[in-house]
Amino acid sequence: MQSLFRKLAPPPSNSKGAHSPTTEEKELFPKVDKKIDGDDCDHDCDSCSIRYPSRFKVEQHDHLYGRTKGWSTHLIVGTGKTDWVRKVEDEKGSVMEAVGKAKSPRNGKLMLSASDIPTPDDADDFPKGSQPATVLLLPAFLWLDRITPADASEMITSVVESAPTTTTPIESEDAVAPAATLPKSVTSRFDIRPCNHRAIILLCSHRTRDARCGQSAPLLRREFERHLRPLGLARDLHDERPGGVGIYFVNHVGGHKYSANVLVYRRKQNDDGSWGEGTQCIWLARVRPQECEQIVKFTVMQGKVVKPDWQLRGGFDREKGMVSW
Known about the structure:
This protein is α+β, with helices and mostly antiparallel strands. It contains eight helices and twelve strands.
């Protein structure tokens, strides 16, 4: 399957000079166009009153596109926390530790993240090392409930290896949700249900790795929610009404000197209004609160990038058959 995908390689390094996006870079995600999207499509929000602290400084010279490591699947483990040990695989007795020790999946690199997704209500009733967690698998848009450290290896071989990846082609116009395609032996062993969000925004909040991430994530969440709310798309951590946008904090994803890092996972809506597989991830950096309005309007809703030469780090598009790595 990988051979069917086009790798959109980064241009030659020119970190200190001006950069003009390559043809390949423009192909992955379209840039907003004033002729189509309006003269103000690339303007910052006038009504945004939230600002980063005055000492919040980030690297401003590097060209970002194509400098991320590729991944096939993304496993996001709910911990109910917004900050973690430096390497989440080192958190004793956690699902992250168990996944880190398990054999890697055969369908490509697994990106592992800890998240503020809530833990089950009775999680604290279990001894450390056997506490259940809620896990989100992307780009499959699947919830796996009550996963314990002891489940990690089987979860990888039975669920992760059976799920679509970032380079799995979209097979049909109306792709069914991945939960319907998993073998019965898997669905009977694990409590699996579809994620009802139309899109997911991941914000790095890992203060232990970089204080800027801990500062930026809550501010960005507030501003994203402010612009999603009038659209009826805002969802808190416990709200799973269909068609909304979930916003979750995650641990270090790399490149904290380019804070804030924002990953937007988008999925396909079928002709009948149902939601199918995840089709895109658009990875942005150097995101500021005053840019959230346009990111919601164009990136989350339409898959377009407002400032690709300044913010786009990479991602994938399964319908186009393209990746940035």
